[in-house]
Design goal:
Elements (H helix, E strand, L loop, with lengths): L2 E4 L15 H14 L4 E6 L4 H17 L5 E6 L4 H9 L3 E7 L2 H8 L3 H17 L3 E7 L1 H7 L1 H11 L7 E4 L7 H14 L5 E4 L7 H10 L4 E4 L13 H10 L12 H12 L16 E2 L2 H8 L18 E2 L7 H11 L5 H16 L9 H9 L9 E9 L7 E8 L2 E8 L3 H16 L5 E8 L10 E9 L2 E9 L2 H18 L8
Length: about 500
């Protein structure tokens, strides 16, 4: 069994521009341990700030009640015991001491000898143990230490190996390693100190953090360090989703992590960190389970010829088939089947031609656009009937006053009016719209995500694409509106949504 220590709350928070408040840190800790089920979490650095102390105290109180306190860890320093006191005052029980893992760091930062550093570390370890704490130790800049001052690293380890230290953490602090070097260096440590438990802590400066973590495990390390969405200093740490999938699928290692929760936890971290996950991010990205090529869609229909072990169902996802200039008939048929739309072969050919034509013009197409394309191509209103449309609306924005909206909506030929105030013009529009829906006893979906895209170099009159993710009865789907005005684009996306839920089985649109 390989352990996973997640350091989103410590190293992940060192991402430029990312800072979690007390309640957010507690929520993340709860998600990591109770939903994702990682083995250990590193939640703070000692003596950083009053806010950090308050957050750590809250986490410790919760963890103590749940029996998780020995899985909550804090980075501490060789500072004469001040870090120990900080951790102890908050109720913490595990300290990860930051020691110098390279001769360069020792001499140029601390200006001490190896013997002096060992004595200082020993004093902190003894003091922590006297307070009832468990102790682990980071060998900061260990990768440089092994490459440039290997004898120093071994001297440090010889001086510490008799102490009550649970985990010896081997960080590639500056992300300089490749998998071959990682394997070699980790194997030397494991061979020289076979009775010790080694963790590997990767950084992703060269994009090799996941590969290096795998190499470390193959060399005998028993724990790997990760962060959610790969957050971390500079280019970040090893992303937990990729590490978990690689350990399971490529190394056949057992892990306790619940991979079905990766998407949920990742989206929460994305929302509060402000760092969006790229669409092509492995395992959890929006496009991971989306086939674009018509050949691939055809192969999947004939026997999952383009699938691998990374099946979307493992992560609560479904395979999708993108629409664009690379689409073939198989892509179109796959999407039509999901939407419950049946066409003749000749009609499919006409729709495919239209999709390719739009894709060639760089139009952004989704499965939700397909009924509109079908209706346009076949000149048939029965495919997606326009049951709802906005007759008129007025939006007001004034300095010192909340935005106001008045709207008139036609629903199956009957017009309704409503007005509302909101926190923004679109918010006011939606509140007025839902007033009408509530009055009619009609249910409506919940807005999950709202994303605005403007072409690079776009000017004030550039077209804006507003993509909105909706959730209705547990099913998520997207609609998109395009206009030179952002609010108008959002309204167009909303009208598409309204007509979709009136006409189609939304469960077929789940992402």
């Amino acid at each position: 069994m390989i352990e996973i220590l997640d350091t989103t709350l410590r190293d992940g928070e060192q991402t430029a521009g990312v800072s979690f408040n007390v309640s957010e840190k507690l929520a993340i800790a709860q998600l990591l341990l109770e939903e994702l089920k990682v083995d250990r979490i590193e939640v703070a650095s000692a003596r950083v700030s009053g806010g950090e102390s308050a957050a750590f105290t809250r986490i410790c109180e919760w963890a103590s009640e749940r029996g998780y306190l020995d899985r909550i860890e804090v980075l501490g320093f060789v500072d004469g015991g001040m870090s120990v006191d900080w951790i102890n005052a908050a109720g913490g029980k595990v300290m990860n001491i930051l020691a110098k893992g390279s001769l360069k760091h020792l001499t140029m930062q601390l200006h001490k000898t190896l013997a002096e550093h060992v004595d200082d570390i020993t004093a902190v370890v003894d003091y922590a143990v006297s307070k009832g704490m468990k102790v682990n130790i980071y060998l900061e800049d260990w990768s440089h230490g092994m490459l440039e001052s290997e004898d120093y690293v071994y001297g440090l380890m010889d001086g510490l190996s008799g102490l009550p230290i649970g985990h010896y953490m081997l960080p590639d602090t500056l992300g300089i390693l490749d998998p071959w070097t990682t394997s070699d260096l980790c194997r030397r440590m494991v061979s020289r100190y076979p009775g010790l438990h080694f963790d590997f802590h990767a950084h992703n400066d060269y994009g090799l953090a996941v590969a290096n973590s795998m190499a470390a495990v193959m060399a005998g390390c028993k724990t790997v360090h990760t962060t959610v969405n790969g957050l971390g200093e500079r280019s970040g740490n090893a992303p937990v989703a990729s590490v978990a999938a690689a350990l399971k699928d490529m190394l056949s290692e057992e892990i306790a992590l619940d991979e079905s929760k990766l998407i949920h936890v990742g989206k929460y971290i994305e929302s509060i960190s402000g760092i969006r996950v790229p669409d092509n991010e492995p395992v959890v990205g929006e496009n991971v389970f989306t086939q674009t090529s018509g050949v691939h869609a055809d192969g999947d229909r004939k026997g999952s010829l383009y699938s691998n072990k990374l099946l979307p169902e493992r992560f609560g996802r479904v395979r999708q088939y993108a629409l664009g200039k690379m689409s073939g008939k198989a892509n179109i048929v796959e999407n039509l089947d999901k939407l419950g739309i049946s066409l003749t072969p000749d009609q499919v050919r006409l729709v495919t031609r239209k999709v390719v034509e739009l894709g060639d013009k760089k139009e952004m197409l989704t499965a939700e656009d397909l009924p509109l394309i079908v209706a346009d191509v076949l000149k048939s209103s029965h495919v997606l009937e326009d049951k709802i449309h906005i007759v008129a609306y007025s939006l007001s924005l004034s300095h010192g006053m909340r935005p106001f909206a008045m709207i008139k909506v036609s629903i199956e030929g009957v017009e309704y009016e409503a007005s509302a105030i909101g926190d923004g013009q679109y918010d006011a529009f939606m509140k007025a719209l839902w007033k009408i829906y509530d009055k009619l006893g009609k249910s409506h979906p919940v807005l999950v995500d709202y994303q605005v895209s403007i072409p690079p170099g776009g000017k004030t009159d550039a077209l804006v694409a507003t993509t909105i993710v909706w959730n209705r009865d547990g099913y998520e789907f997207k609609t998109r509106g395009i206009d030179s005005d952002q609010t108008e684009a959002a309204i167009k996306a909303t009208v598409k949504m309204l007509n979709l839920i009136e006409n189609l089985d939304i469960s077929t649109l789940t992402t």
